[in-house]
């Protein structure tokens, strides 16, 4: 099939159960056992789970006591972020052997544009296989990969043959692949959105493709246009080596739930200090302040306010955060508070970077 937009050779590499796999690699006694990185206490939260633990329904962001209830033999280990960063740097150094167009999403995953690469290898599929082999040799850890014409499809494909596998979606296979895709596997469609789509009779990519852009706009707002285009294989976002952040934030989870706004003011001040430090380090300012409140029953609430000017000063951040805190009464005792700043001054730079859409018809050896 011919596409009237740029075709690229994109690889999405995703380390398999990264944090937990590092722990199992460094401590052979943990191999083959259900492992959770994080806290197993009532206050603790699972940061990552091994595949052995996932069989019991243990997932990241799950409360530690629920994880232990699901899997009585679960072994909790404390996170070692310095170690994870060290391994992540090893992995990224391998990526840069092939291309400078590397866009990290987190410590354990990244996009690579290998349309033109340092090895002169025309096959993105073979490059992905080589990279995975090198990662295993260098770190003892496995990675999975997705390979296709754009970031969206590569991201979806990388999840297909996990762990320790890869999937290529060639240009001529894209449309059928997307039409057959369960809507829950579309990157950007969360649980709530999937349930809404089900109610609207959308279960697969084919069902989604049958909906007009007007229908999707009216039901899903700004995301409607995104869904309309990606199901047609159109996603022109480039791999950006230096990703421009959409927001900067800081948050704290407390050992004891806080039941009064008065007790939260000191906590908010500490969070504002940390946020100011991060903003100054990155030389960023923003207009929209969001207060994040997680209650003792794990329900989440956010309150936001947009100012007419850019700020990065902790006093102004704290003043607005306090205003948001007192905006309405608390629904329950609070276990977590966070402050983030969005609508950043970096977005002005990003708007200048316009995607080029040229009419090309390429046949790639994937």
UniProtKB/TrEMBL annotation:
Keywords: Coiled coil, Cytoplasm, DNA damage, DNA repair, DNA replication, DNA-binding, DNA-directed DNA polymerase, Magnesium, Metal-binding, Mutator protein, Nucleotidyltransferase, Transferase. Mg(2+) binds at residues 14, 108. Residues 10-190 form the UmuC domain. GO terms for molecular function: damaged DNA binding; DNA-directed DNA polymerase activity; magnesium ion binding. The record marks 19 as: Substrate discrimination. It comes from the Bacteria. Its EC number is 2.7.7.7. Poorly processive, error-prone DNA polymerase involved in untargeted mutagenesis. Copies undamaged DNA at stalled replication forks, which arise in vivo from mismatched or misaligned primer ends. These misaligned primers can be extended by PolIV. Exhibits no 3'-5' exonuclease (proofreading) activity. May be involved in translesional synthesis, in conjunction with the beta clamp from PolIII. The active site is at residue 109. GO terms for biological process: DNA repair; DNA-templated DNA replication; error-prone translesion synthesis; SOS response. Binds 2 magnesium ions per subunit. Belongs to the DNA polymerase type-Y family. It catalyses: DNA(n) + a 2'-deoxyribonucleoside 5'-triphosphate = DNA(n+1) + diphosphate. Pfam families: IMS, IMS_C, IMS_HHH. One of its GO terms (cellular component) is cytosol. This is DNA polymerase IV. InterPro entries: DNA/RNA_pol_sf (IPR043502), DNA_pol_Y-fam_lit_finger_sf (IPR036775), DNA_pol_Y-fam_little_finger (IPR017961), DNA_polymerase-Y (IPR050116), DNApol_IV (IPR022880), PolY_HhH_motif (IPR024728), Rev_trsase/Diguanyl_cyclase (IPR043128), UmuC (IPR001126). CDD domains: PolY_Pol_IV_kappa (cd03586). Its main location: cytoplasm. Residues 258-285 form a coiled coil. The gene is dinB. Its cofactor is Mg(2+).
